[in-house]
Amino acid sequence: MDYRFSGFSYYAKATSLTPEYYQTLLDHYWRRSGTTLYRPDQLHACCVHYTLRLDSTQFKPTRDQRQTINRFNKLLTGDAYTKEAARLQPRTREQAKKRDSEFDLIERVHEAEYDSLQVPPEPAHVFTVTLEHDDFTEEKYIVYENYQRVVHKEQPADITRRGFQRFLCESPVQRKTITTADGKEQRLGSFHQCYRLDGKLVAIGVLDLLPHCVSAVYFLYHESIHKYAPGKLGAIREIALAREGGYRYWYPGFYIHTCPKMRYKMDYTPQYILDPETLAWDLMDKRVTDLLDKQQYLSLSKEKPDSPGDNGSEEAAEKTTAGNALAKEDPMDESDDDDNDTFLFNTGMPGVMSLDEIRSLDQMDHLKLRIDGSGMLFETGDLVAWQRQDVGASGCLKAGIAELVAALGPELLEDLVVDFWNPHL
């Protein structure tokens, strides 16, 4: 295990996470990039990261968002299809009136998909959207290469298949299908939402489907569809998936208020912001954005005591993770930064446990460890050096595990396995 802290993020390598466990990690300010989990230090970072979520059941698309969907649907079906379909399957007066006066989000996002159309007649374009495993394919890599080169202006030499696979095709979040309380099947885990136009893959939404949210990891598209506002279409479709699939919330990823490229996330409302210190959710209204305009770090628990919130935090279960505890500005940057190494407990990072809290934690001697390939699990108290070491002695094994525990919080310890053996880390 390697422990470093540079004042930007604390991170750990993960081998396996249940969707329930990762849901709770998200609600504790963690996020993943590939198999790397990281928790930003909002108090000391130059660009402060905040966790946001949108309640899909309350989402009402703006006029511009509705027009974007309608224009794209019209392009897909074409005028000839629209006219012929109106002749063959005419709407009743009531249906036409309802369509003109109401915007059904679920209905509209599926409206022009080929499987939703009545054929004949044939539409101008065949459009399909499928939820697929997050496996690497050459078809997906072609879209990734084009997006990174054209949209992000990366040099071709810096765009690799291994980079794509590591970043967007390797996830520790387990896939499974459950039956919800209302008897519906719900898919959980990491997926690629694949958009195909006339048989060609043109966009991919990298998603983590969790018990209480659709978490957007990354969205990429081919330059050939840039004029159709694919980012906007993808966000709206993911929100619709959160509502239709019973996940409820849409997590758009970290938000940096000072970054102009992230302001688009504020176009989707209502959103809630996670307090870095109390982990309570507060409505992201004008009062909050005004505060963010004035101050870089914001904990609403330190502002007005009557701040509006939707303080819902879900409990989680099982996980297996490796506690590689490093911290960097970029979680994908594996370069050394020894000069900036700092003991987590000396940083003042918000929302982490103190040394006194760690010392009073009975679970510290009973954390599960994997140290070989036998399948057997051991406890921290079984280690020969454990009782001799102190959690406050930076650099020793016990202090390193204490940092991981402090960054996770006591709610996540019961099913934690610290992995010293996994050869893939």
Question: How would you describe this structure to a colleague?
Answer:
The chain is of the alpha+beta class and 425 residues long. The chain folds into 3 domains: 9-47 and 314-419, no CATH class; 52-253, Aminopeptidase, CATH 3.40.630; 261-302, no CATH class. The chain has 10 helices and 16 strands. The chain has helices spanning 19-26, 63-88, 93-101, 105-110, 138-151, 161-169, 230-244, 286-294, 355-359, 397-408; strands spanning 9-17, 31-33, 36-40, 52-55, 127-133, 176-179, 185-197, 200-210, 213-221, 249-251, 271-274, 281-283, 319-326, 368-370, 378-379, 417-419. A hairpin with a 2-residue loop joins strand 8 and strand 9 (213-221). The radius of gyration is 24 Å and the shape is elongated. The N and C termini lie close together (10 Å). Mean pLDDT is 89; it is low at 312-340.
In short, what is this structure?
Residues 331-341 have a biased composition (Acidic residues). With 425 residues, this protein is α+β, with helices and mostly antiparallel strands. It has helices spanning 19-26, 63-88, 93-101, 105-110, 138-151, 161-169, 230-244, 286-294, 355-359, 397-408, and strands at residues 9-17, 31-33, 36-40, 52-55, 127-133, 176-179, 185-197, 200-210, 213-221, 249-251, 271-274, 281-283, 319-326, 368-370, 378-379, 417-419.
